[in-house]
Write a structure and sequence with these properties.
Layout lengths: L2 E5 L4 H12 L3 E6 L12 E5 L5 H8 L4 E4 L12 H14 L4 E5 L13 H13 L1 H15 L4 E6 L2 E3 L7 E3 L9 E3 H11 L8 E6 L1
Parallel strand pairs: 1-2, 1-4, 2-3, 4-5, 5-6, 6-10, 7-9
Antiparallel strand pairs: 8-10
Length: 210
Amino acid sequence: MKTIAVFGASGRTGTEIINIALEKGFYINALYRNKSTITLSHNNLNIIEGDILKFSNVKSVIEGSGYVICAIGTKPPFKDVFCSEGTKNIIKGMYDYNLTRLTCITGAMIGDYPGILSGFMNKLKLRFNKSYPLISLDRLKQEMAIKASGLNWTILKPPRLTESSLSKYKMSENLRITGFSSISRKTIASLIFDIIENESTYQKTLFVKK
């Protein structure tokens, strides 16, 4: 069973990814900013304390791994700008260890994908971009870095994330996203393991919803 490197492990989606990976018997190297906040303990979980903006920390998480999952993201009040630079560190670390498989969760409102968002969602996107221009640009640069990496990447773009239970999901490059669209954190965490070795998802940007 291969080891998975997880970035964004301390977030709510990252926590679900860790839980499902452990259920499936994977070994995990996970980066946390502060070890003292962690309550989870498991023999298959290797907790590494560090900063995603420090390449040496990122490289230590990737070492010995077979797959890399990136679930990093900013939280309200949206002041921390780190996703693109942190992701560039991940890509560089993958190059160093000759890894190719990267799965990254971003968001449905990031970037320009004509025909995907409803009118209401486009208005929300424009409002967010105006309120948090640095965050929006940072996330766009994150996706651009992944697409230019040459890796076997998949970008997953969920709409509103919920705390609901596991459910069926829809996933497509052209999936319509409206104000009613959502997906649970458990579901998107689970679907990562459905596609992690699925070559048909390589180098694709996939919108997902329940």
